[in-house]
Amino acid sequence: MVYREKLLAAQQRSNSWLCVGLDPQPEKLALALWNYDDPVLLFNRRIIDATKDLVCAYKPNLGFYSQWGAAGMIALERTIAYIPNDIPVILDCKIGDIGHTQGAWGRGLYDEWQVDAITVNPYVGEAAVAPLLAERPDRAVYLLARTSNPGAQLFQGDLRQGKGLAADVIRTSQSWPLAGHLGYVVGATYPEELGLAREMAPDANFLIPGVGAQGGNLAAAVAHGADTVAGPVISVSRSIIYAAGGADFDQAARDAALAIREQINAARGV
Question: Quick check: is 6 catalytic?
Answer without folding.
Answer: no
